C-alpha cells in the first residue's frame, strides 16, 4: 500500500531496544543481576520505568529503589558491569532476531521515499545494529553517544529530525517505552506505541505486536 498522497509523513524514527529487536529483555536480565547483588528484586513494573532511560540514569534509579547508598565510582562500576553482562547477551544476536513486521515496514517506507532514522538511548545501538545486519540501512542514526539527556527528554528525536532535514511535525516515532512516547510527543511528533495499550495509552496509536506495523497505520495518524 502506498503512503496517502495527503500524508504529512516524511520520516519515521525507530527506537531500537524492544522495537527492532527484543534486547529490552537483555537490559532487564542484566539489571536484575546487579539489583540482586543489592538484595533488590527488580520487577516488571520497575523495568517499564527503565525502558528508554540511559545507563547511568537507570543505575541511579535502581540504587534508589534498593535503598543503597553508593559513591559515584561504585555506581559507575555497577553500570559498567551491567554493560558487560548486556554485551555478552548481545553477542548471540543475528538478523533472525529482527522482530516481525520491521523489515516489511522499512521496505515499504523505502519504496515510498520516506526517510528512516534510529533514535535510541543506547550507546550499544551500533553494535546491536551490526549484529542484526542493519547498520547501513538507516539514513540517520542518533544514539546514546549523541545525546546528553535521556528519554523522556525529546533531544534524541529532535536531533534525528534535524539530521534528516525534516520538521518534527513531519516525523513519526515508533516506540515501546512510556518514556519514549513522552519524548516523541514533546518533540511535537506523532508516535506509534508497540505494547500494552494501558501502559502506552498516550501514544497516537498503540498496537500489541510489531507484526501489525504497516504504511496503513502511518496513514491513519498522519492527519
Ligand atoms: C534504551 C533501553 O534503549 O537504552 C534502556 O531501553 C537502556 O533499557 C538504554 O538503559 C541505554 O542503553 P545502553 O546500551 O547504553 O546501556
Ligand atoms: Mg525501547
Describe this protein's structure.
The chain is built from 9 helices and 6 strands, in the order E-H-H-H-H-H-E-H-E-H-E-H-E-E-H. With about 220 residues, it is an alpha/beta fold. It folds into 2 domains: about 10-20 and about 100-220, Rossmann fold, CATH 3.40.50.1000; about 25-90, Putative phosphatase, domain 2 (DNA polymerase, domain 1, Orthogonal Bundle), CATH 1.10.150. The chain has a 6-stranded parallel β-sheet, with helices on both faces. Strand 2, helix 6 (about 125-130) and strand 3 (about 140) form a beta-alpha-beta unit. Helix 1 (about 25-35) crosses helix 4 and helix 3 (about 55-65) packs across helix 4. It is globular, with a radius of gyration of 17 Å. The two termini are about 15 Å apart. The mean pLDDT is about 95. The site of 6-O-phosphono-beta-D-glucopyranose has 19 residues, from helix 1 and helix 3.
Keywords:
single chain; 9 helices; 223 residues; DNA polymerase, domain 1; alpha/beta; six-stranded parallel β-sheet; binds magnesium ion; Rossmann fold; binds 6-O-phosphono-beta-D-glucopyranose; globular; 42% helix
**Number of individual domains:** 2
At the fourth level of CATH, the homologous superfamily of the largest domain is HAD superfamily/HAD-like
User: Which fold name corresponds to the CATH topology of the largest domain?
Assistant: Rossmann fold
What is the distance, rounded to the nearest whole angstrom, between the alpha carbons of the first and last residues? 17 Å
> In terms of per-residue confidence, which ranges show pLDDT below 50 for 5 or more consecutive residues?
none
